[in-house]
Design brief:
mainly beta; 11 strands; about 110 residues; four-stranded antiparallel beta sheet; about 0% helix
Length: about 110
């Protein structure tokens, strides 16, 4: 069974850090691009980053220099390290694998 699950969200103060995980089962994540997307309250789904299967990384301008995507192929997992978080980063974060689907999201709340 193919499954995709984002985890690692939580409540953090502005300036803090979180690391999100996108775990996969039933397929080899290293053969696919992984896209992180987020949806803030009352807003549309936004693109955050893309980690391609050939190791290229792309980031939305709003997170460039703060967020980093990295893979652990042994764990079939992609991570999104988020540093210097701001209240504008508050959203539900999803990992999406084009051609496979989107997993359940994880809530990130940045608040003092």
């Amino acid at each position: 069974e193919v499954q995709l699950q984002a985890s690692g969200g939580g409540l953090v103060q502005p300036g803090g850090s979180l690391r999100l995980s996108c775990g996969a089962s039933g397929f080899n994540l290293s053969n696919y691009d992984v896209v992180w997307r987020r949806q803030a309250p009352g807003k549309e789904l936004d693109w955050v980053s893309r980690d391609t299967k050939d190791h290229r990384l792309f980031y939305h301008d709003s997170v460039k220099g703060r967020f980093t995507s990295a893979r652990d192929n042994a764990k079939n997992t992609v991570y999104l390290q988020m540093n210097r978080l701001t209240v504008e980063d508050t959203a539900v974060y999803f990992c999406v694998v084009p051609g496979i689907g989107r997993g359940r999201g994880t809530q990130v709340t940045v608040s003092s």
